[in-house]
Structures are given as structure tokens and as C-alpha cells.
Amino acid sequence: CSVSKIRKKPKTRMMKFICCTIPCFLLLPFADGFTIGNNGLTVSSRRINSSNLYETVVSPFDEDSTATTEKPMLDLTWDNVEEILEEMRPYLIQDGGNVAISDIDGPVVKLELQGACGTCPSSTQTLKMGLERGLKERIPEIQEVIQSMPEGPDLCDEQVDVVLEGVRPFLSVAGGTIECTSIIEDSLQPSITLNMEGSSASLNSVKLEIVQRLQRHFMMSGLKVEWQA
Fold first, then answer.
1. From the centroid of its chain, how far is CA 222?
2. Crossing angle for the helix pair 204-218 and 157-165, nearest 10 degrees?
3. pLDDT band at 13 (very low <50, low <70, confident <90, very high)
4. Tens digits of per-residue pLDDT, 80-130?
5. Fewer CB under 10 Å: which end of the chain, C or N?
């Protein structure tokens, strides 16, 4: 049930609440007593501090977040990195992602972003502004946190065409076509250039879907998809 109709009686310090979304059971720990009448629930209460009803949850990904208690520094070990990641995982999981340690090479920690985080356009920000910052705050030995990508198929015309074949039926309905015009297999900045014609060529949502499909297929760090003018 819900409590309703705000009305105060000066002498009895009684309160009635109407059209409030706070469930009754949240107020009962602060109430001296309550009665149920024709006008709803009446709670006889001490002064209720709203801070008692809500607990502030601070995300480690917020740039202005500050810890309420100073936590001890840790050594750079696999278990300690895993311990800190475990504190941050809930914020990734609620968006359909996750993170796992791939390797620790000296002061460099390699992490694999999984699920939605692995192909998200903001994965670099998640890694650097969230995970790297959170790890460095507790483990000063860490110099850098980098993303480790799982092995995907080779970047070639045949594999690009595998992805494009999945979208061609939808484009053809509107009289559209799509082809791969060039591939650059650069280790630092690999790229694919596509040429799409038809009414769908001007739709950014269609282009974004194709880019995400290619990124999920190749799982290649830094893969760039460009569109031929």
C-alpha cells in the first residue's frame, strides 16, 4: 500500500500522506504508531529525516566521486586486481557488460571487456576513466591499463562480406546496396571503407548498426569503419 495526503496537526504531530510513492513499510521503522481509516493510512510519527530513507550509491565511474573512507593501498597481484574489479563489476553488468583479467605484464594490466562493453563505442572511456582510474587509486604500481581483444577472424574481403550478407536483404527492400571498397590491415589503425547506395545511405542508424556488426565480428582493437562519399 501507499501512504497519502500531507496534513499536520500541531498538537498531535499526526501526519497524513496522499499521492506519495513511499511504501508504508519504509515509514514504519520511524513511526510511533499508525491507524487505517476512511481517508487512508495515518502515521503517528516523530520527525522523519529523508536521509534515513535513502542511501546514496556512488559509482566508481563518476569523476567527482570521493570515497567516504580511505582504503589501504594494495600490491600489484592478480588477486588484488580481481578484488578491485569485483567492486566495479556491478556497474558494468547492469549495462550488459563485464570485465576479466587477460594478463598482467609487469606494471601493465590487460583487461578484456566482455558483452556490451566489448563493442561499445565508449569502451575506451570505460577502460581509461573508470577501470584504470579505479585500479591506480588502490594499486599505485600500475602504470597503464589496456584492452585485450579476443582473437577474431582475419580482416579480409571474404570476412567483411560475411557481415554484409546479413544486412543486404534489409537494404534491398528499399532498393539499396552495400559493398566493401577497401581494407587497410594496419596493426595500429585497421580500417574498412564501405560504399552504400539507396535511400538507406543517409540513415545514420543503419550505418551505426553495420559498424557495430563489423566490430563484433572482428573483435579488433581500433577497427575503423569509413563511408565512401
1. 20
2. 130
3. very low
4. 999 999 999 998 898 888 999 999 999 999 998 887 776 666 777 778 888
5. C
CA dist 15 → 19, 25, 29, 38, 210 (Å): 13, 16, 15, 15, 58
Angle at 22 between CA 17 and CA 25, to 5 degrees: 100
CA distance 183 to 177: 18
Q: How far is CA 117 from the centre of its chain?
A: 7
Record the pTM.
0.46
Strands 191-197 and 224-227: parallel
3-state secondary structure the chain: CECCCCEEECCCCEEECCCCCCEHHHHHHHEEEEEEECCEEEEEECCCCHHHCCCCCCCCCCCCCCCCCCCCCCCCCHHHHHHHHHHHHHHHHCCCEEEEEEEEECCEEEEEEEEHHHHCCCHHHHHHHHHHHHHHHHCCCCCEEEECCCCCCCCCHHHHHHHHHCCHHHHHHCCCEEEEEEEECCCCCCEEEEEEECHHHHCHHHHHHHHHHHHHHHCCCCCEEEECC
| pLDDT one-digit tens code per residue, 31-62 | 444 444 445 444 444 444 444 434 444 555 55
AA identity, residue 117: C
Residues 41 and 3: their CA atoms lie apart, in Å, by 6
